[in-house]
Structure to design on (397 residues):
Protein backbone atom coordinates (compact mmCIF):
# COMPACT_ATOMS: atom_id res chain seq x y z
CA UNK A 1 0.00 0.00 0.00
CA UNK A 2 1.34 3.43 -0.92
CA UNK A 3 2.20 5.85 1.88
CA UNK A 4 -0.61 8.24 0.89
CA UNK A 5 -3.16 5.42 1.08
CA UNK A 6 -1.86 4.39 4.50
CA UNK A 7 -2.24 7.95 5.77
CA UNK A 8 -5.79 8.16 4.37
CA UNK A 9 -6.68 4.92 6.17
CA UNK A 10 -5.18 5.98 9.49
CA UNK A 11 -6.54 9.52 9.26
CA UNK A 12 -10.17 8.34 8.99
CA UNK A 13 -12.17 9.06 12.12
CA UNK A 14 -9.35 10.74 14.05
CA UNK A 15 -9.99 13.97 15.92
CA UNK A 16 -6.37 15.16 15.84
CA UNK A 17 -2.92 13.82 14.94
CA UNK A 18 0.18 15.40 16.49
CA UNK A 19 1.58 15.42 13.93
CA UNK A 20 0.70 14.01 10.49
CA UNK A 21 4.16 14.90 9.17
CA UNK A 22 5.80 12.89 11.95
CA UNK A 23 3.43 9.98 11.33
CA UNK A 24 4.32 9.96 7.64
CA UNK A 25 8.03 10.00 8.50
CA UNK A 26 7.65 7.08 10.91
CA UNK A 27 5.62 5.03 8.42
CA UNK A 28 8.33 5.65 5.82
CA UNK A 29 10.98 4.05 8.05
CA UNK A 30 10.06 0.63 6.73
CA UNK A 31 10.09 -1.10 10.14
CA UNK A 32 7.28 -2.25 12.44
CA UNK A 33 6.29 0.63 14.70
CA UNK A 34 5.41 0.30 18.38
CA UNK A 35 1.81 1.49 18.78
CA UNK A 36 0.83 2.11 22.40
CA UNK A 37 -2.58 2.17 24.05
CA UNK A 38 -2.87 2.68 27.79
CA UNK A 39 -5.81 0.95 29.44
CA UNK A 40 -7.27 2.00 32.77
CA UNK A 41 -8.10 -1.30 34.53
CA UNK A 42 -10.78 0.25 36.75
CA UNK A 43 -13.61 -0.51 34.28
CA UNK A 44 -13.12 -3.92 32.66
CA UNK A 45 -16.26 -4.06 30.48
CA UNK A 46 -15.20 -2.91 27.03
CA UNK A 47 -17.89 -1.08 25.08
CA UNK A 48 -18.17 0.47 21.62
CA UNK A 49 -16.52 3.65 22.89
CA UNK A 50 -13.34 1.63 23.45
CA UNK A 51 -13.78 -0.09 20.09
CA UNK A 52 -13.27 3.25 18.29
CA UNK A 53 -9.64 3.19 19.45
CA UNK A 54 -9.21 -0.59 19.12
CA UNK A 55 -10.27 -0.49 15.47
CA UNK A 56 -7.59 2.12 14.77
CA UNK A 57 -5.03 -0.13 16.44
CA UNK A 58 -6.18 -3.03 14.26
CA UNK A 59 -5.59 -0.87 11.18
CA UNK A 60 -1.99 -0.38 12.30
CA UNK A 61 -1.67 -4.13 12.80
CA UNK A 62 -3.00 -4.83 9.33
CA UNK A 63 -0.23 -2.55 8.03
CA UNK A 64 2.35 -4.71 9.81
CA UNK A 65 2.89 -2.82 13.06
CA UNK A 66 2.96 -4.04 16.67
CA UNK A 67 0.38 -2.95 19.23
CA UNK A 68 1.20 -2.71 22.92
CA UNK A 69 -1.86 -2.76 25.16
CA UNK A 70 -0.48 -1.36 28.37
CA UNK A 71 -2.52 -2.24 31.43
CA UNK A 72 -2.02 0.54 33.96
CA UNK A 73 -1.82 -1.75 36.96
CA UNK A 74 0.54 0.63 38.74
CA UNK A 75 -1.08 3.90 37.66
CA UNK A 76 -4.45 2.26 38.38
CA UNK A 77 -3.62 2.53 42.05
CA UNK A 78 -3.89 6.31 41.55
CA UNK A 79 -6.58 6.52 38.88
CA UNK A 80 -6.60 8.88 35.90
CA UNK A 81 -7.83 12.31 37.13
CA UNK A 82 -8.90 13.31 33.58
CA UNK A 83 -12.38 14.79 33.68
CA UNK A 84 -12.69 14.18 37.41
CA UNK A 85 -14.07 16.69 39.90
CA UNK A 86 -12.84 14.66 42.86
CA UNK A 87 -10.04 12.29 43.80
CA UNK A 88 -10.56 8.72 42.59
CA UNK A 89 -10.63 5.84 45.04
CA UNK A 90 -7.35 3.95 44.86
CA UNK A 91 -7.80 0.37 43.64
CA UNK A 92 -6.28 -2.57 45.45
CA UNK A 93 -3.70 -4.71 43.67
CA UNK A 94 -6.17 -7.63 43.50
CA UNK A 95 -8.86 -5.42 41.93
CA UNK A 96 -6.44 -4.09 39.34
CA UNK A 97 -5.21 -7.58 38.39
CA UNK A 98 -8.71 -9.01 38.02
CA UNK A 99 -9.87 -6.06 35.91
CA UNK A 100 -6.75 -6.32 33.78
CA UNK A 101 -7.41 -10.01 33.12
CA UNK A 102 -10.90 -9.31 31.78
CA UNK A 103 -9.56 -6.47 29.61
CA UNK A 104 -7.03 -8.81 28.03
CA UNK A 105 -9.77 -11.33 27.23
CA UNK A 106 -11.90 -8.75 25.45
CA UNK A 107 -9.40 -6.78 23.34
CA UNK A 108 -8.73 -9.82 21.17
CA UNK A 109 -12.26 -9.57 19.83
CA UNK A 110 -10.84 -6.70 17.77
CA UNK A 111 -7.06 -7.02 17.81
CA UNK A 112 -4.80 -9.63 16.21
CA UNK A 113 -3.23 -11.63 19.08
CA UNK A 114 -0.14 -12.33 16.96
CA UNK A 115 0.66 -8.62 16.70
CA UNK A 116 -0.43 -7.64 20.23
CA UNK A 117 1.66 -7.44 23.39
CA UNK A 118 -0.11 -7.16 26.74
CA UNK A 119 2.16 -5.40 29.20
CA UNK A 120 1.85 -3.91 32.69
CA UNK A 121 3.44 -0.63 33.73
CA UNK A 122 4.28 -1.95 37.18
CA UNK A 123 7.15 -3.70 35.38
CA UNK A 124 9.16 -0.45 35.41
CA UNK A 125 7.26 2.01 37.61
CA UNK A 126 7.47 -0.24 40.68
CA UNK A 127 11.27 -0.35 40.29
CA UNK A 128 11.87 3.41 40.31
CA UNK A 129 13.65 4.52 43.48
CA UNK A 130 12.89 7.83 45.13
CA UNK A 131 15.80 9.59 43.44
CA UNK A 132 14.47 8.54 40.04
CA UNK A 133 10.99 9.75 40.96
CA UNK A 134 12.42 13.14 41.92
CA UNK A 135 14.33 13.21 38.62
CA UNK A 136 11.09 12.49 36.75
CA UNK A 137 9.20 15.18 38.70
CA UNK A 138 11.88 17.71 37.74
CA UNK A 139 10.88 17.31 34.07
CA UNK A 140 7.78 19.50 34.47
CA UNK A 141 6.40 22.33 36.58
CA UNK A 142 3.39 22.76 38.82
CA UNK A 143 2.13 25.55 36.54
CA UNK A 144 2.22 23.13 33.59
CA UNK A 145 0.22 20.52 35.50
CA UNK A 146 -2.32 23.11 36.60
CA UNK A 147 -3.03 23.87 32.93
CA UNK A 148 -5.18 20.72 32.90
CA UNK A 149 -8.84 21.69 32.93
CA UNK A 150 -9.74 19.18 35.65
CA UNK A 151 -6.97 20.32 38.00
CA UNK A 152 -7.61 23.96 37.19
CA UNK A 153 -11.33 23.77 37.91
CA UNK A 154 -10.77 21.90 41.17
CA UNK A 155 -8.09 24.41 42.21
CA UNK A 156 -10.41 27.36 41.52
CA UNK A 157 -13.25 25.68 43.37
CA UNK A 158 -10.91 24.95 46.30
CA UNK A 159 -11.56 21.24 45.99
CA UNK A 160 -8.83 18.86 47.15
CA UNK A 161 -6.09 17.86 44.73
CA UNK A 162 -3.85 15.27 46.31
CA UNK A 163 -0.16 15.37 45.48
CA UNK A 164 -0.08 11.82 44.09
CA UNK A 165 -2.60 12.83 41.37
CA UNK A 166 -0.02 15.13 39.80
CA UNK A 167 2.17 12.08 39.21
CA UNK A 168 -0.40 10.38 36.95
CA UNK A 169 0.46 12.24 33.70
CA UNK A 170 4.17 11.94 34.53
CA UNK A 171 3.91 8.19 35.01
CA UNK A 172 1.80 7.73 31.89
CA UNK A 173 4.35 9.74 29.96
CA UNK A 174 7.19 7.71 31.42
CA UNK A 175 5.44 4.57 30.12
CA UNK A 176 6.15 5.81 26.60
CA UNK A 177 9.80 6.34 27.53
CA UNK A 178 10.09 2.81 28.92
CA UNK A 179 8.44 1.30 25.83
CA UNK A 180 10.14 3.65 23.33
CA UNK A 181 6.71 4.06 21.74
CA UNK A 182 6.43 5.39 18.19
CA UNK A 183 2.71 6.18 18.27
CA UNK A 184 0.20 6.45 21.11
CA UNK A 185 -3.58 6.43 20.78
CA UNK A 186 -6.11 7.87 23.19
CA UNK A 187 -9.36 9.76 23.42
CA UNK A 188 -9.46 13.52 23.09
CA UNK A 189 -9.67 13.72 26.89
CA UNK A 190 -6.16 12.22 27.01
CA UNK A 191 -4.46 15.00 25.04
CA UNK A 192 -2.63 16.46 28.04
CA UNK A 193 -1.22 13.05 29.00
CA UNK A 194 -0.10 12.23 25.45
CA UNK A 195 1.61 15.58 25.00
CA UNK A 196 3.34 15.04 28.33
CA UNK A 197 4.68 11.75 26.97
CA UNK A 198 6.08 13.50 23.88
CA UNK A 199 7.92 16.01 26.06
CA UNK A 200 9.35 13.35 28.37
CA UNK A 201 10.61 11.29 25.44
CA UNK A 202 12.52 14.35 24.19
CA UNK A 203 13.93 14.87 27.70
CA UNK A 204 15.17 11.27 27.73
CA UNK A 205 16.76 11.57 24.28
CA UNK A 206 14.09 9.76 22.28
CA UNK A 207 12.12 10.73 19.19
CA UNK A 208 8.68 11.88 20.40
CA UNK A 209 5.77 9.57 19.73
CA UNK A 210 2.95 10.58 17.41
CA UNK A 211 -0.20 11.36 19.41
CA UNK A 212 -3.38 10.15 17.71
CA UNK A 213 -6.49 11.48 19.43
CA UNK A 214 -9.75 9.67 18.75
CA UNK A 215 -13.25 11.12 19.22
CA UNK A 216 -15.25 10.35 22.34
CA UNK A 217 -18.25 8.31 21.20
CA UNK A 218 -21.64 9.42 22.52
CA UNK A 219 -23.77 6.77 24.16
CA UNK A 220 -27.27 5.59 23.31
CA UNK A 221 -28.75 8.73 24.90
CA UNK A 222 -27.04 10.74 22.18
CA UNK A 223 -25.80 13.34 24.65
CA UNK A 224 -23.06 12.10 26.98
CA UNK A 225 -19.95 9.99 26.39
CA UNK A 226 -20.58 6.26 26.33
CA UNK A 227 -20.03 5.02 29.85
CA UNK A 228 -21.03 2.07 31.98
CA UNK A 229 -21.66 4.38 34.93
CA UNK A 230 -24.15 6.42 32.86
CA UNK A 231 -25.96 3.32 31.62
CA UNK A 232 -25.78 4.48 27.99
CA UNK A 233 -23.21 1.96 26.78
CA UNK A 234 -23.21 -0.97 24.34
CA UNK A 235 -20.88 -3.62 25.71
CA UNK A 236 -19.00 -6.23 23.70
CA UNK A 237 -20.37 -8.79 26.14
CA UNK A 238 -23.99 -7.83 25.45
CA UNK A 239 -26.13 -10.61 24.01
CA UNK A 240 -26.67 -10.23 20.23
CA UNK A 241 -30.33 -9.21 20.61
CA UNK A 242 -29.47 -6.65 23.31
CA UNK A 243 -26.62 -5.22 21.24
CA UNK A 244 -28.85 -4.98 18.18
CA UNK A 245 -31.65 -3.26 20.11
CA UNK A 246 -29.27 -0.77 21.72
CA UNK A 247 -27.81 0.22 18.35
CA UNK A 248 -31.34 0.73 17.04
CA UNK A 249 -32.02 3.09 19.95
CA UNK A 250 -29.32 5.65 19.07
CA UNK A 251 -30.57 9.00 17.71
CA UNK A 252 -30.63 9.27 13.93
CA UNK A 253 -28.22 12.21 14.00
CA UNK A 254 -25.47 9.89 15.31
CA UNK A 255 -25.79 7.43 12.45
CA UNK A 256 -23.00 8.93 10.36
CA UNK A 257 -20.69 9.17 13.37
CA UNK A 258 -21.24 5.53 14.41
CA UNK A 259 -20.79 4.32 10.83
CA UNK A 260 -17.59 6.27 10.31
CA UNK A 261 -16.01 5.20 13.61
CA UNK A 262 -17.28 1.63 13.91
CA UNK A 263 -17.51 0.29 10.34
CA UNK A 264 -15.47 0.19 7.16
CA UNK A 265 -18.27 1.61 5.00
CA UNK A 266 -16.66 3.93 2.42
CA UNK A 267 -16.95 7.61 3.29
CA UNK A 268 -18.40 8.36 -0.16
CA UNK A 269 -21.26 5.95 0.53
CA UNK A 270 -21.89 7.48 3.95
CA UNK A 271 -22.09 10.96 2.43
CA UNK A 272 -24.53 9.80 -0.26
CA UNK A 273 -26.76 8.09 2.31
CA UNK A 274 -26.70 11.12 4.58
CA UNK A 275 -27.88 13.28 1.68
CA UNK A 276 -30.61 10.77 0.78
CA UNK A 277 -31.88 10.65 4.37
CA UNK A 278 -31.95 14.45 4.59
CA UNK A 279 -33.98 14.57 1.37
CA UNK A 280 -36.42 11.92 2.62
CA UNK A 281 -35.42 9.36 -0.04
CA UNK A 282 -33.93 6.95 2.49
CA UNK A 283 -35.42 5.91 5.82
CA UNK A 284 -32.85 6.22 8.64
CA UNK A 285 -34.33 3.09 10.19
CA UNK A 286 -33.08 1.00 7.25
CA UNK A 287 -29.57 2.44 7.58
CA UNK A 288 -29.63 1.88 11.32
CA UNK A 289 -30.67 -1.74 10.88
CA UNK A 290 -27.71 -2.34 8.61
CA UNK A 291 -25.44 -0.66 11.16
CA UNK A 292 -26.85 -2.86 13.95
CA UNK A 293 -26.40 -5.95 11.78
CA UNK A 294 -22.78 -5.00 10.98
CA UNK A 295 -21.86 -4.35 14.62
CA UNK A 296 -23.50 -7.51 15.96
CA UNK A 297 -21.93 -9.50 13.13
CA UNK A 298 -18.45 -8.25 14.00
CA UNK A 299 -18.63 -9.44 17.61
CA UNK A 300 -21.05 -12.37 17.44
CA UNK A 301 -20.94 -13.56 13.83
CA UNK A 302 -23.23 -13.19 10.82
CA UNK A 303 -25.66 -15.90 11.96
CA UNK A 304 -26.20 -14.26 15.35
CA UNK A 305 -26.69 -10.90 13.60
CA UNK A 306 -29.40 -12.31 11.34
CA UNK A 307 -31.15 -13.92 14.31
CA UNK A 308 -31.00 -10.66 16.30
CA UNK A 309 -32.51 -8.77 13.36
CA UNK A 310 -35.27 -11.33 12.92
CA UNK A 311 -36.06 -11.12 16.64
CA UNK A 312 -36.11 -7.33 16.48
CA UNK A 313 -38.52 -7.44 13.53
CA UNK A 314 -40.81 -9.86 15.34
CA UNK A 315 -40.86 -7.73 18.48
CA UNK A 316 -41.38 -4.60 16.43
CA UNK A 317 -44.28 -6.16 14.51
CA UNK A 318 -45.95 -7.45 17.68
CA UNK A 319 -46.04 -4.07 19.33
CA UNK A 320 -49.58 -2.91 19.93
CA UNK A 321 -50.27 -0.27 17.37
CA UNK A 322 -53.67 0.83 16.06
CA UNK A 323 -54.40 -0.08 12.44
CA UNK A 324 -55.61 3.49 11.94
CA UNK A 325 -53.92 6.54 13.40
CA UNK A 326 -53.92 10.24 12.61
CA UNK A 327 -51.47 11.54 10.02
CA UNK A 328 -49.90 14.87 10.85
CA UNK A 329 -47.98 17.13 8.48
CA UNK A 330 -44.85 18.65 9.99
CA UNK A 331 -42.08 20.84 8.66
CA UNK A 332 -38.86 19.09 7.58
CA UNK A 333 -35.60 19.70 9.35
CA UNK A 334 -33.89 18.47 12.50
CA UNK A 335 -35.23 19.60 15.87
CA UNK A 336 -35.78 18.36 19.40
CA UNK A 337 -38.13 15.42 19.66
CA UNK A 338 -40.07 17.15 22.44
CA UNK A 339 -40.83 19.97 19.97
CA UNK A 340 -41.92 17.45 17.33
CA UNK A 341 -44.26 15.72 19.81
CA UNK A 342 -45.83 19.08 20.61
CA UNK A 343 -46.14 19.96 16.91
CA UNK A 344 -47.80 16.58 16.19
CA UNK A 345 -50.33 17.15 18.97
CA UNK A 346 -49.11 14.20 21.03
CA UNK A 347 -48.19 16.25 24.09
CA UNK A 348 -49.68 19.47 25.48
CA UNK A 349 -46.28 20.93 26.47
CA UNK A 350 -42.54 20.49 26.22
CA UNK A 351 -42.35 19.57 29.91
CA UNK A 352 -44.88 16.77 29.37
CA UNK A 353 -42.72 15.47 26.53
CA UNK A 354 -39.68 15.42 28.80
CA UNK A 355 -41.65 13.61 31.52
CA UNK A 356 -42.80 10.91 29.08
CA UNK A 357 -39.25 10.42 27.79
CA UNK A 358 -37.97 9.99 31.36
CA UNK A 359 -40.64 7.35 31.90
CA UNK A 360 -39.61 5.47 28.76
CA UNK A 361 -43.03 6.14 27.22
CA UNK A 362 -41.88 7.75 23.96
CA UNK A 363 -41.04 5.70 20.88
CA UNK A 364 -39.98 6.54 17.34
CA UNK A 365 -40.88 3.78 14.88
CA UNK A 366 -41.29 1.48 17.86
CA UNK A 367 -37.84 2.23 19.26
CA UNK A 368 -37.61 3.75 22.77
CA UNK A 369 -36.29 7.32 22.85
CA UNK A 370 -34.12 8.15 25.88
CA UNK A 371 -32.54 11.53 25.13
CA UNK A 372 -34.63 14.31 26.74
CA UNK A 373 -33.11 17.03 24.57
CA UNK A 374 -32.23 14.78 21.63
CA UNK A 375 -32.93 15.86 18.06
CA UNK A 376 -34.05 14.06 14.92
CA UNK A 377 -35.22 14.91 11.43
CA UNK A 378 -38.77 13.67 10.70
CA UNK A 379 -39.23 11.39 7.69
CA UNK A 380 -42.54 10.68 5.95
CA UNK A 381 -44.03 7.47 7.31
CA UNK A 382 -42.34 7.79 10.70
CA UNK A 383 -44.60 6.74 13.59
CA UNK A 384 -44.43 8.65 16.87
CA UNK A 385 -45.83 7.27 20.10
CA UNK A 386 -46.31 9.16 23.37
CA UNK A 387 -47.68 7.03 26.16
CA UNK A 388 -49.63 3.83 25.52
CA UNK A 389 -52.39 5.12 23.26
CA UNK A 390 -51.22 8.29 21.51
CA UNK A 391 -49.87 7.63 18.01
CA UNK A 392 -49.28 9.74 14.93
CA UNK A 393 -47.91 9.02 11.50
CA UNK A 394 -45.69 11.82 10.24
CA UNK A 395 -45.73 13.34 6.76
CA UNK A 396 -43.19 16.03 6.00
CA UNK A 397 -44.56 19.13 4.30
Amino acid sequence: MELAAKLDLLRRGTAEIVSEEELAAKLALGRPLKIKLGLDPSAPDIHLGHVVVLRKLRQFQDLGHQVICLIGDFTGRIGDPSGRSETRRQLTEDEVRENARTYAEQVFQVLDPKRTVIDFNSRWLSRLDFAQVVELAAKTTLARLLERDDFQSRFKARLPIHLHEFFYPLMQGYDSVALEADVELGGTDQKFNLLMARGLQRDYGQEPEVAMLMPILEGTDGERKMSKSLGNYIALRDAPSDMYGKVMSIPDRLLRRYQELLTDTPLEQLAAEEEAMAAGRLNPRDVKMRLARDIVGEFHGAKAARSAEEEFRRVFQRRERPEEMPTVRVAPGSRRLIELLLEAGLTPSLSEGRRLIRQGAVRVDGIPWTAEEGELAPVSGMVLQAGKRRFARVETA
